[in-house]
Amino acid sequence: MPEVRMTVEEYLQLLERTADNVKRVAKSTRTIERETRKSRRRVGKAAKGLGKAMKEANRRLRTKSGKLRKGKTQADVAKLAHKIRRQKYA
After folding, report:
1. What is the residue extent of each domain of the chain?
2. Which letter does DSSP use for residue 52 in this model?
3. N or C: which end of the chain has fewer CB within 10 A?
């Protein structure tokens, strides 16, 4: 492999040029990310209400240990949650 010798001044110039290129590339990648990022959709009132209603429905249809009451299914929990949402959080 050939031997390369540089003066201190040449080495410092090389470092400065490299640093400038890194800054330039970093700026361009940041602007690309900013342009392609999608805006988030706001959560609607009904969605927030359904979350609260699900908590309440689960509280009503589950035992203290967390099991569903006898004869109740997860579908019953969802139906009750929709009913609660329509009544309270509509």
Report:
1. 1-37, 45-88
2. H
3. N
Site of tokens 């900013």:
34
The token pair at 56 is 């309440």
CB-based contacts of 90, cutoff 8 Å, min separation 6: 46, 49
Residue type, 29: T
- CA nearest to 37, candidates 27, 29, 45: 29
CB of 79 closer than 8 Å to CB of 58: no
Helix 45-61 × helix 74-88 angle, to 10°: 130
Q: What's the N-to-C CA distance of the chain in angstroms?
A: 77
Place of tokens 């203290």: 64
Of 73, 31, 83, 23, nearest in space to 53 by CA:
83
Q: pTM for this structure?
A: 0.53
d(CA 17, CA 5): 18
